[in-house]
Prior knowledge:
- This protein is mainly α and 149 residues long.
- Helix content is 63%, strand content 11%.
- The chain is built from six helices and three strands, in the order H-H-E-H-H-E-E-H-H.
- Strands 1-3-2 form a three-stranded antiparallel β-sheet.
- Strand 2 (89-94) and strand 3 form a beta hairpin.
- Helix 3 (62-69) crosses helix 4 (73-85).
Amino acid sequence: MHDDRTPDAQPDDATSDEGxxxxxxxxxxxxxxxxxxxxxDIAPGQMRFLRTLHRAGGTxxxxxLATALNLAPRSVTTKVDLAEAAGLVERRPDPTDRRATxxxxxxxxxxxxxxxxxxxxxxMSARLSRLAPADRTRLLTLVRRLxxx
Length: 149
């Protein structure tokens, strides 16, 4: 990654203003996409919990989820309770340790995740279609550069 600043250089005021504006714009975009998705009644933190469970293969121990989400175990218990009451997950005995339980996505939970993903992708695609193909390519290139570690 190319950086013209020296390691000790501080961003100038213009860069700080641009950074603040970019953060505001990204926040607005993501908020709008979330609002337009089917899962209006599911909080963003709950969606993050469900996506993390999905990435874990659809089944995980609560402690593993707490670690992956960087949350206290009691916070994960609350998320599991809410998702279970909504029919999105279920608790099951851990097949490798009968003293423990795992949390598993239900068919409904999987369907909600798929619908939200489709809604957000459709919303983003509609916004990207406002740009010329070359602008879309350039935007993706720039965002990839910003996210490059």
